[in-house]
Amino acid sequence: MTPDRGTRKRGLPIRRASRAGSRWALAVPSTGRHALRMESPAALEAQRTLESRVAAIDSRLDLFDEIARLKRERNAVILAHYYQEPDIQDIADFIGDSLQLSQEAKRTAADVIVFCGVHFMAETAKILNPEKKVVLPDLEAGCSLAEGCPADRFAAWRQRFPGAVAVSYINCSADVKALSDIICTSSNAEKIVRSIPADKTVLFAPDRNLGKWVEKRTGRDMKLWLGSCVVHETFSERKLVALVDAHPDAEVIAHPECEEPILRRAKFVGSTSALLGYVTKSPAKAFIVATEPGILHQMQKAAPEKTLIAAPPEGNCACNECPFMKRNSLEKVYLALRDLQPEITLDESVRVRALASVERMLSLS
Q1: Closest C-alpha among 186, 357, 342 to residue 276
Q2: How far is it, in rounded angstroms, from Cα 58 to Cα 204?
Q3: 36-53+62-141+324-339: which CATH number, 1.20.140.20, 3.40.50.1240, 3.40.50.150, 3.40.50.10800?
Q4: Which helix H or strand E contains 252, and what residues bound it?
Q5: Rounded mean pLDDT of the chain?
Q6: pLDDT digits 0-9 by tens, 114-161
Q7: Above pLDDT 70, what percent of the chain?
Q8: Taking 70 as the threshold, does the pLDDT of residue 293 lie above it?
Q9: Domain 237-310 belongs to what architecture?
Q10: Segments in the chain forming alpha helices (H)
Q11: What is the pLDDT of residues 219-276, one digit of tens each?
């Protein structure tokens, strides 16, 4: 049976019938705690050029077939994060969280990696694969955590604590990875911190919420960079309580990037892949999921008999959806494969130093 490929307006992502009436929002949450970077004239021009290329795609093309053809011709692999839109997840060769995607990027035999995620993820793939071409469908798919931890400020922070071990969450730039001792993800942060000798001061950046959760899990005090995720900080405890009252049999599960009031009410806290595993294995029949709702697509496929409810943001908006992840679209994936751009490039000295911290993480994972 031919899969339902939905319909589109030019330049908009294809929407499946199961998502009728839904819209991906690119609005920035109105919390006021994050300011997205001011785009330079060059960046704005690049974005206009990309949108023009999207608009010029022949509407008669079957993008699913074209992407499959180009993958074969380019010997390419498509890696996608769980937070990508469903159509991108469905064309991906591998779907995972940050740790899983790093591991897959390291072992791929493809010549081209199309990374359907955000900029720091594609950079990590390039750190691990300097000889491969790594493309990101939209170069402006950034990350509030990475942008909130510039390398110069991170370096100055490190200098205040001589002899300390710097553990950086993978949601940071290649430059910050190069200045770090070891990288972690939400899947292995606790294990990484436990591996550090007790007499060492630990610096943890850039996510303070994940850092606080690790402190609680390990009983270890750390020096925390005061960053947070623009998506995970928007969940409303007030609305969550009301949702639990309306669905008393539903279990609350949450990502450790969430604020403490949300984590306190969760039956289970874990990485994106851990949340997926919990839903599939738990005897519970309904779940309120406090993370980016892109993961619901894989949860529904893995456990179609279960009810999944996205935890609500504070405002009347789609602020629980990552505006950066949703910059990628099926059209942009097609263009990235066709034109092999935008390409990720790194200064080799930065890449080598960043590789050391990433490899230390992978050796413990």
Answers
A1: 186
A2: 48
A3: 3.40.50.10800
A4: strand 251-254
A5: 88
A6: 999 999 999 999 999 999 999 999 999 999 999 999 999 999 999 999
A7: 89
A8: yes
A9: 3-Layer(aba) Sandwich (3.40)
A10: 41-55, 63-74, 86-91, 98-107, 119-128, 144-147, 151-159, 174-178, 189-194, 208-218, 237-246, 260-264, 272-281, 295-302, 330-339, 348-363
A11: 999 999 999 998 999 999 999 999 999 999 999 999 999 999 999 999 999 999 999 9
Instruction: Tell me whether the CATH fold assigned to 146-230+348-363 matches the one assigned to 237-310.
Output: yes
Which is it for strands 307-310 and 268-269: parallel, antiparallel or unpaired? unpaired
Q: How far apart are CA 233 and CA 209, in angstroms?
A: 9
Let me know: does 63 contact 330? Beta carbons within 8 Å.
yes
Sheet bearing 202-205, strands edge to edge? 182-184, 165-169, 202-205, 223-224
